Amino acid sequence: MVKVAASSLRKGNVVDVDGKLYVILKLENIHPGKGTPVTQLDMRRISDGVKVSERWRTTESVEKAFVDERSFNFLYKDAEGYHFMNPDNYDQIVVTEDVVGDMAVYLQDGMTVTLLTHEDVALSLELPARVTLEIVETEPVTKGQTASGSYKPAKLDNGVRTMVPTYITVGTRVVVMTEDGSFLERAKD
Amino acid sequence: MSRAPWWRGDVHAARRPLLLARNRITAATRAWFAARDFLEVETAALQVSPGNEAHLHAFATEAIATDGVRAPLYLRTSPEFACKSLLAAGEARIFDFARVWRNRERGALHSPEFTLLEWYRAGESYEVLMEDCAALLGLAAETAGTRRLTFRGRTADPFATPERVTLAEAFSRYAGIDLLATVQAGGETDRDALAAAARGAGLRIAGDDTWADVFSRVLVERIEPILGDGRPTILCEYPVSEAALARPSLRDPRVAERFELYACGVELANCFGELTEPAEQRRRFGLEMDEKARIYGERYPIDEEFLSALAHMPPASGAALGFDRLVMLATGAAHIDQVLWTPVAET
Question: What is the model's pLDDT at position A145?
């Protein structure tokens, strides 16, 4: 445990409140034009999964718990949850649906992700910043549409919708950002 | 951050309609003030003091004179000192689209660099500013082509007369707390009484919370989120200790002539019947800087030139409106960066 100011907390951090551990899901600092700024948090209690809201002064001292952060490889999903393996010792860990959330669409066979764990319980998952996916739907290329900076809607093979440059065609493999699905570049493979 | 950069063609194309609305609202606002005999002023961004509020953090820099001598200067957190000095100089109606800087602030409603629209009326009451605020909301909505202000699923009618609520009424209505029972005639406050009342209302109070901290907790947790729902709200008559640059009310010395404008739960503007007594202003700045030193270990200088000018300032009322936030509510933007032509880099 280490004492930190509330404003230095980040999503995914684990805090100890009255002897119970909570993982931070969402956090926003509110600064009134005048008056005391506060840090507003949505957190999940690790013991029972109950979600709570809390507010602290940004300068208030909070107990932050140490968590383990290491790479795991994605194996498969079943009724139990998402299975990952530690490539160093082959230990497996099951991550529940509520931790994976919207990120599920980007998980690929063997993908290396970062898992935050506390006493072998997965608290949050971090995807690689970029993934390569295939375009399955987009308008055909029309002659004359070569201006740079011109984009059109497209659908990726994981179902995510994005915007791509007009020269990209169905079947092209592209690199997108996992944070918001935005197009980065044509894949080099 | 791993978001697509704002300068990319598609990202910019998505933001562009909001930016064009911003430009139209700016032009319409300028015309609105000009039609009412206001002069547009452009005050200096570099100041001796960035403002003396305990919780406002400035960007500091250093002036180097021709002989190499160094002196601290700050980017202003508001154009208030400069505008008031112009009133002292004899101007009567002025407005300033002021670019201002506030450190330690970043989020959906906070950018470290933003535009504060300030306007001042010499010899006029702060009630007139309430009418100005209502008119500017309607003007922004009309110019953006909308009938509704929106933020995070909340809406407000920009053409409705704002609801007017005092702090005492709001604390009683939304938290069951008798606020003014914890404020004495001279403005002194009773920390333990307010903390006990807030605990009774179900709020968590920290052992080292001051009266002002508890006041802010009640405001942020129980009152602000529901203000400006359906129609704009004017929250007025702040306790004097929460209004560093406002004059005390003639009706009740425990409260000051300060109001805030809210719409969709968002704080949009802060307005004062201005304090014009240099000695009292110096005393309040001292208290604010003591509080800043206690909490953040830092204090900002007192702008002596400003205090000198204050002695010559006529009675006046003044407003500061977060212009970017107004554009957000009129365009339905979810984040302030969507309405800034070039957002400030994430650090």
Answer: 54
Domain end position, chosen among A104, A126, A148: A126
A174 touches chain B (CB under 8 A): no
The yes-or-no verdict on residue B119 having pLDDT over 90 is yes
* Over residues B294-315, mean pLDDT: 97
Find the domain containing A155 and state its range: 130-186
Nearest CA of chain A to the CA of B308: how many Å?
A: 24
State how far the Cα of B146 lies from the Cα of B157, in Å rounded to an integer: 10
Note whether A3 contacts B: Cβ–Cβ < 8 A. Answer: no
> Confidence class of residue A149 from pLDDT cuts 50, 70 and 90?
low
User: Are A95 and A146 in a shared domain?
Assistant: no
A101 in the same domain as A74: yes
For A12-63, write each residue's pLDDT tens digit.
Answer: 889 999 889 999 999 999 998 888 999 999 999 988 889 999 999 999 999 9
Number of separate domains in chain A: 3
Q: Report the CATH number that the domain containing residue A96 is assigned in CATH.
A: 2.40.50.140
Torsion angles phi and psi, residue B150, rounded to 5: -140, 145
Are residues A53 and A12 both part of a single domain? yes
What CA–CA distance (Å, rounded) separates B56 from B45? 16
Q: Do B3 and A38 touch (CB under 8 A)?
A: no
| Shared-domain flag, residues A120 and A140 | no
Q: Are A72 and A86 in contact (CB under 8 A)?
A: yes
Structure tokens, A72: 């795991």
The CATH number for A11's domain is: 2.30.30.30
Do residues A81 and A45 both lie within one domain? no
> Interface pTM (ipTM) of the complex?
0.83
Residue A146 has pLDDT above 70, yes or no: no
Residue A24, classed as helix, strand or coil, is strand
Please state the pTM of the whole predicted model: 0.86
Task: Specify the pLDDT at position A150.
Answer: 75
A-proximal residues of B, 134-193, CB under 8 Å: none
The answer to whether A138 and A166 are in contact (CB under 8 A) is no
B3 touches chain A (CB under 8 A): yes
B248-302 residue pLDDT tens = 999 999 999 999 999 999 999 999 999 999 999 999 999 999 999 999 999 999 9
Identify which of A38, A60, A148 has the shortest CB distance to residue B220: A38
- Of the candidates B272, B264, B314, B318, which has an alpha carbon nearest to the alpha carbon of residue B117? B318
Residues in chain B within 8 Å Cβ distance of A179: 1-3
Cβ–Cβ below 8 Å for A151 and B10 = yes
My answer on whether A42 and A78 are in the same domain is: no
CA distance A65 to chain B (A): 20
How many alpha carbons lie under 13 Å from residue A41 in its C-beta half-sphere? 26
Contact A36 B2 (CB under 8 A): no
Please answer yes or no on whether A35 and B55 come within 8 Å at the CB atom. Answer: yes
Task: Mention every residue, 6+ apart, whose C-beta is less than 8 A from residue B16.
Answer: none
